[in-house]
Amino acid sequence: MPPAISISGLVKTFGSTRALDGLDLLVESGEVHGFLGPNGSGKTTTIRVLLGLLRADAGKVVLLGGDPWRDAVELHRRLAYVPGEVSLWPNFTGGEVIDMLGRLRGDLDPRRRDALLERFQLDPTKKTRSYSKGNRQKVGLVAALASDAELLLLDEPTSGLDPLMEAVFQDCIREVKTEGRTVLLSSHILAEVEALCDRLSIIRLGRVVERGTLNELRHLTRTSITAETERPAEGLADLAGVHGLDIDGTHVRFEIDTDHLDVAVRRLGELGVRSLVSHPPTLEELFLRHYGDELAKEPERIDGERIARPSPR
Amino acid sequence: MTALTGTFELARSIVRRDRIRILVWIGSIVVLAAFTAAGTKGLFPSQAALDQTAAATQHNAAAIAFNGPAQGLNTVGGQVAFQFGAGGMVLVALMSLFMVGRLTRGEEEAGRLELVRSLPVGSHAPAAAATLTVAAMSIAVGLLTIAVLLTQGLPAVGSIVFGVSFILIGLFFAGVALLVAQVTENTRVVYGTVGGVLGAAFVLRAVGDIGDGTASWFSPIGWAQKARPFAGERWWPFLLMLAATAVLVAAAMAVAARRDLGAGLVAARLGKPTAARSLGHPFGLAIRLQRGVLFGWAVGVLVAGIAYGWIGPTVDTFIGQNKALAEILAGAGGASLTDSYFAASFRLMALVATGFAIQSALRLRSEETSMRAESVLATPISRTRWAASHLTVAFAGSVILLGVAGLATGLTYGFAGGDFRSVPRLLGAALVYAPPMWLMVGLTIAFVGLVPRWVGVSWAILAVCVVVGFLGAVLHLPSWLQNLSPFERVPQLPAASLTLLPLFVISTLAAALTLAGLGGLRRRDIGWT
């Protein structure tokens, strides 16, 4: 089966700002693909290019076998979209918006909609003006999930949802996945991506810097080890791949490149292990490894997340 | 901390943010006042010319209906007040309305007020800062107008009364806008309601000035004109305006203290859990989004049409007494004074209704910048279809408004005069303005599609058309400039005969601009600001 989304070398500039700088992204059919990056890294711009709202300056973008700019109308029959900040018509009720978007797409299934309203505990008779952010987000989610689109483009869809609703959302996405449909899930909520995604791409400054399954990505990084040994922990410092070694008598803490884990654990065994805590790198650590340095020298980035516009200067 | 803590800081931030807007409002009103004064002086080289015009205008119900009571017309000052008084006050009122609306309910609806109120800022401070800013703008307009009139050598007391009437009208309508902004939840409704109050004030004083003057006492514009600038000034009507303003502001404060942030006075009702069938296509959505606005404008045009139709028969009787005068006033075309009056009435109503046409076409842009268009365009609806659905409302809505104006005027004229034969003629005279309104829609969509940053220019062009239409002669505007306004190019029915060529040319231009705009919209990024 051809990939649902295939992007190579995508460039999009706003004025003098390069929002997307040679982005590559491959989303296979039937997978839930995590699209990770901090605010302003280009996630929303990418999705807006996929929706045919923005025109690519350079690069090749294939969406469901078509050109998202030229074939927008045809492609939109086959996809559903949830924006990161759902803007609604203030005089409409939530139910009206959900119905309308469903009918405009052409596949409104009233039973499915009612079931989703029930699951997300959304009152469809309230005017959207009075909805909280979470409720507005639910309107977007119900409208998208009530369709049987083969591709879901979700741009930080759960911002503002409470943990209970987050769980409902995760259930829904798993169901979508068992139906063989494809999901591109842009997020910066790492737990959500860890729980749902088969593969993920990490975006930074408009280009994808890491991609693969979670396991593949974990190999790129280090495992943390905390241990208490019978004999003073010596001879660890000269092992390959050890970082941040901290020895306090028989207590030892260090990080080890995942490729060298085997050797390190054997050495610990020789010292007589009393207790051992080892945890694999979390997505958080993966993420921080790519972005930690940015905290120090955050460059001027456009607010490319919600409204793509050139920076004021 | 008191309820007003932070007022000055907020006012300062408003001035910094809106400085261009503030300067444009103040500057354009004062410049118009200056040109009117200079132009009027040039128009009447001698006292004899003044006397002649004063005598003629005394019997010109049409001029009185549009301008105000005929008082002090044998002086240059009186002529300036007659030419620019009512129009200037409408401009100052619009300034107050739009500034207060956007600074109070607009900020609240956008959610920014919430952020401000979380700061150590008093509960009334944001509204007070808006009021303070608009009051300062009104005072600036008034003082600069006084200065301008004085430099033109007009009498001091009259100039001061004239300028003060601008200030007080600005304050009065700031009060109205402030109150309405507290009662309703929607900024558009604020603009519509206060615009309706302004229209009623204008029409009431027209009816009063033509009749026995009673109705003028129910209009703030009427009060200001009762102060008689350059015509035996009196100050006490100003007290009436100050008192009314104080009542309005107090009422707004009382409502504000009683309601929650973000809410109106009227609690939101629950609505339908499912959408009507009509919302299954973009045209249904466009109608649903614009029907309220169209209805509001239609009511306004209806009231204006009734008022102008009601005055219609009076124009005949006014002039019936003086045959020689009738010939002078009717001008070279040989048209009857009544027909000239109706032609001017329809031009005014068409120019006002063009406000709807532009607003309706701009709905595309506001849907886009609010990111709501994105949700629709992510469905299998093409950009052209989405835009065309809103434009259909703009084009058809223009015709509907003109139809309402024509029918209301014709039927009321028939009712007041006992003769309904003029109805189709007057309806046609109104509908002749459809092509220029379409042209303004086309212009707006061309901006939206090709240079979305400049969409505001549509309003500026309409403003120029209004100035050309009403002050063109007084300002000695060059004829090429006057001819640029499409509203001057259509046959001025019923005073002139119908010629199809200009209507055809203007409609073709409108279509070309619309297609260019749609083409641009299809090629550009959506959401780009």
Kindly report how far apart the N and C termini of chain A lie: 46 Å
CATH architecture of the largest domain in chain A: 3-Layer(aba) Sandwich
Unreliably modeled segments of chain B: none
- Strand order of the biggest β-sheet of chain A: 5-6-7-3-8-9
Describe the global form of chain A: elongated
What series of H and E elements makes up the topology of chain B? HHHHHHHHHHHHHHHHHHHHHH
> What do we call the CATH topology of the largest domain in chain A?
Rossmann fold
Number of domains of chain A: 3
Largest sheet of chain A: 6 strands, mixed
Unreliable segments of chain A (pLDDT under 50, ≥5 consecutive)?
A: 295-313
CATH class of the largest domain in chain A: Alpha Beta
Query: Roughly what percent helix of chain A?
Result: 25-40%
Summing up helix and strand content along with how strands pair, one would put the structural category of chain A as: alpha/beta
Instruction: Report the largest inter-chain contact.
Output: A-B, 49 and 39 residues
Residue share in helices of chain B?
A: over 70%
Strand segment count of chain A: 13
Counting DSSP H or I runs of 4 or more residues, the number of helices of chain B is 22
H/E order of the elements of chain A? EEEHEHEHHHEHEHEEHEEEHEH
Q: How many helical stretches of chain A?
A: 10
What topology emerges from the helices and strands here?
The complex is a heterodimer of chains A (313) and B (529).
Chain A: E1 5-14, E2 17-27, E3 32-36, H1 43-50, E4 58-63, H2 72-76, E5 79-82, H3 94-105, H4 110-119, H5 133-145, E6 151-155, H6 163-178, E7 182-187, H7 190-196, E8 199-204, E9 207-213, H8 214-219, E10 222-229, E11 242-248, E12 251-257, H9 261-271, E13 273-279, H10 283-296
Parallel strand pairs in A: 3-7, 3-8, 5-6, 6-7
Antiparallel strand pairs in A: 1-2, 1-4, 8-9, 10-12, 10-13, 11-12
Chain B: H1 7-17, H2 19-43, H3 47-58, H4 61-67, H5 76-109, H6 112-117, H7 125-151, H8 156-183, H9 187-210, H10 220-226, H11 236-258, H12 282-320, H13 323-330, H14 337-369, H15 372-377, H16 383-417, H17 423-431, H18 434-450, H19 457-471, H20 479-484, H21 486-489, H22 500-523
